[in-house]
Amino acid sequence: QAASFGAGSTFQYEVDSTDLNDLSIAADLLVVDGDLSIADGALLHFADIGNQPGEFGWHTTVFAMINYTGTWDGGRFTLNGTTLEDDSQFFVDDQMWQIDYNATSGGLNYVSDYDTGATSSFVTVTAVPEPSTTLMLVIAGVAGVASARFRKTAKTS
To answer: Phi and psi for 111 in degrees, rounded to 5?
Structure first.
């Protein structure tokens, strides 16, 4: 069955930040065997029912919101009065997320339920790490590369 979100309809999407040890069940998933249609004015209500904002952002957490096997009509959801363009970012509480309407792979939630046929696509949301977290990951990566180069140089000298 195709999924069609008409103007004024609401897609209720929930994530749960209370148990980060099992991200496979930490977010809802809608599986659609067919096309995905989103009319102008279709609303997205995105909530963290765990109410621990920022918990997903310590690393890049990707969740599939919708897994569809047909085509996407290019429509976009509206959240809090703002149209969410493809790859745009938005806040829910203190957590920034990025939406992708035509991702080629899903995320961490309900992976065994995905329809992964040749025409399968996903609407995903990715937790965007805070700038300080991103900076620390970059510094750690640079330090790791510098350390590896130093060890390599030390061995060959």
So the answer is: -55, -40
Torsion sign, CA atoms 38, 118, 86, 27: positive
- Sheet containing 95-103, strands listed edge to edge, beginning at the edge strand earlier in sequence: 30-32, 62-68, 121-128, 95-103, 89-92
Alpha-carbon torsion, ordered 81, 62, 121, 34, to 10 deg? -60
78-111 residues labelled b (16+ CB within 10 A) or e (exposed): bbeeeebeeeeebebeebbbbbbbebeebbebbe
* Cβ-contact 102, 35 below 8 angstroms: no
In the block, residue with structure tokens 């930040």: 17
Largest CA distance in the chain: 69
Q: State the residue for tokens 């620390």.
A: 136
Q: How far is CA 51 from CA 16, 21, 92, 93, in A?
A: 8, 16, 10, 8
* pLDDT tens column, 107-122: 999 999 999 888 899 9
**CA 122/CA 47 separation, integer angstroms:** 19
pTM score, whole prediction: 0.80
